[in-house]
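Handoff note, outgoing to incoming analyst
You'll be picking up this chain. Sequence as last confirmed:
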Amino acid sequence: MRKFLLLVTTMMVVVSAQAQKNEVGKWSLIPFVGINSSNMSGCDALSEDGGQIKSKGKIGLTAGLATEYRYMQPLSTTLGVSYSRGGYRYTEHLRMRAHLDFLNLTALENLYIADGLALKTGIQVEYLLGGKYKYDNRSEELGGSIKRWNAVIPVGISYEYQHFILDFRYNIGLSNLCNLPVPTEAWRSKCFVLSLGYRLHLN
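Most recent structure output, in case you need it:
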């Protein structure tokens, strides 16, 4: 009986401590890593017969650090900074990959619709650090063909269990990234991001 009471008491203490960590007014840090699948709409290439070659999605990596503040029981704000490798590729008649390195600043509002389950959206500003076009046997610098700044709207969902946070987002590019001197269709980024983070409570 004593062992049972000790077990119940321990469980109550753990649950109480976890509940306190999720109270209003709490700060936390969330380091995260993940993968993304990015593409660029509007940047179709021309084949030798004059047809259009559609760009395809490209897999890349992302990593960063976010801080979250719970200011109301169902609502919180997240501010984050991250690195991501994005771009796009062609596979038909033209073997080329565009590798684009971005520094991202993100502000999100999180709505907790259930324990550990949150919907989120906000704004993300991306700065192009650099990148290359890679062909079969050679590569070349971007040469100013893509603009440095990009505005993005992230829309996503996350689930937290035992401090681990699985986050899935779709980033909708708003800016025209084409910086070519000739008129062309607007280039807009689009990206799916899947990441795994770990919550570290600060108070």
